[in-house]
């Protein structure tokens, strides 16, 4: 019984750790903020859930299980909020590779800033092609 | 057991190192915010894995604190970047507020 519980727990922990590694790979390889966020939120929800299930099986006792459940619930509640805020700011501040988007319902509706001085990434495409220096 | 532990630490450490690479190289502030968020989640996963490997429940309250701090940090930096508007469509540098939904804009024009 305990051997079976250990096997299940280590399976959950290994799956969560693999998700952490894929998040790092996606963060390094993906091209813009939205796709990096897509990769980075994999361990934020599923990875943390799997790791918490594995740890709750290993640490027997209801107090630890409830506290790990609290951590998982916090992650589930707060990950969409922060992702929404970051993606909204990223869209309006030209951090999104618009040439890679399939559907962009916000084009021409004035949800981008008009001045781009500040914090745009170095590899961002020019927003207005007429304003390109020398173009 | 020790092989599984070493594999777990290697996977989580690799993920944390790659997130650190993005944190150092990230061309913009928002890339660094995303990388910091992911790095904190990976660190809390590593703490939980350590607690599960040695069967030591001392680190469990730390996980609650880390998960709450990650949310507060990423949200505050995202709002700070959103407040860095130099010239918005309102003309006086104020923030635009929430964007209008697409169908609402179509119905207005």
From TrEMBL, chain A:
Where would you find the membrane-spanning parts of this chain?
A: 6-28, 65-87
Q: Which residues form the signal peptide?
A: none
Question: Could you confirm whether the keyword Membrane appears in this record?
Answer: yes
Superkingdom assignment: Bacteria
Please give the residue ranges the record annotates as the region Disordered.
111-135
The UniProt keywords, alphabetically, are:
Membrane, Transmembrane, Transmembrane helix
Transmembrane among keywords: yes
Q: Name one GO molecular function term.
A: sodium:proton antiporter activity
Assigned protein family: Belongs to the CPA3 antiporters (TC 2.A.63) subunit G family.
The molecule here is called Multisubunit sodium/proton antiporter, MrpG subunit
Q: Highest lineage ranks of the organism? A: Bacteria, Bacillati, Actinomycetota, Actinomycetes, Geodermatophilales
Automatic annotation (TrEMBL), chain B:
Segments traversing the membrane? 6-24, 33-53, 59-81
Any one GO MF term held by the record is: sodium:proton antiporter activity
Q: Where is this region: Disordered?
A: 90-109
Instruction: State the GO CC annotations.
Output: plasma membrane
Which InterPro entries does this one have? MrpF/PhaF-like (IPR007208)
Where would one find the signal peptide in this protein?
none
Location of the protein in the cell = Cell membrane
* Keyword field: Cell membrane, Membrane, Transmembrane, Transmembrane helix, Transport
Annotated PANTHER family: NA(+)/H(+) ANTIPORTER SUBUNIT F1, NA(+)_H(+) ANTIPORTER SUBUNIT F
Question: Record's family?
Answer: Belongs to the CPA3 antiporters (TC 2.A.63) subunit F family.
What's the protein here called? Answer: Multisubunit sodium/proton antiporter, MrpF subunit
Native organism taxonomy: Bacteria, Bacillati, Actinomycetota, Actinomycetes, Geodermatophilales
């Amino acid at each position: 019984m305990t051997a079976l519980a250990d096997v299940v727990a280590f399976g959950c922990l290994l799956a969560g750790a693999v998700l952490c590694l894929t998040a790092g790979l996606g963060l390094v390889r993906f091209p813009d903020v939205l796709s990096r966020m897509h990769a980075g939120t994999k361990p934020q929800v599923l990875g943390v859930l799997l790791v918490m299930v594995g740890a709750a099986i290993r640490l027997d006792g209801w107090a630890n299980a409830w506290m790990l459940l609290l951590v998982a619930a916090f992650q589930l509640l707060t990950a969409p909020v922060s992702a929404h805020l970051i993606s909204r700011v990223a869209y309006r501040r030209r951090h999104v590779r618009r040439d890679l988007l399939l559907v962009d319902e916000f084009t021409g509706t004035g949800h981008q800033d008009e001045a781009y001085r500040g914090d745009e990434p170095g590899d961002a495409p020019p927003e207005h092609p007429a304003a390109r220096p020398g173009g | 057991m020790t092989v599984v532990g070493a594999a777990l630490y290697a996977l989580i450490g690799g993920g944390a190192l790659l997130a650190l690479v993005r944190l150092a190289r990230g061309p913009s502030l928002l890339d660094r915010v995303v990388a910091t968020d992911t790095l904190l989640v990976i660190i809390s996963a590593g703490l939980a894995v350590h607690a599960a490997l040695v069967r030591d429940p001392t680190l469990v309250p730390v996980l609650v604190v880390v998960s709450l701090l990650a949310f507060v940090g990423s949200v505050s930096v995202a709002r700070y970047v959103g407040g860095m508007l130099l010239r918005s469509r309102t003309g006086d540098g104020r923030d635009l507020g929430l964007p209008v939904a697409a169908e609402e804009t179509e119905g207005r024009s």
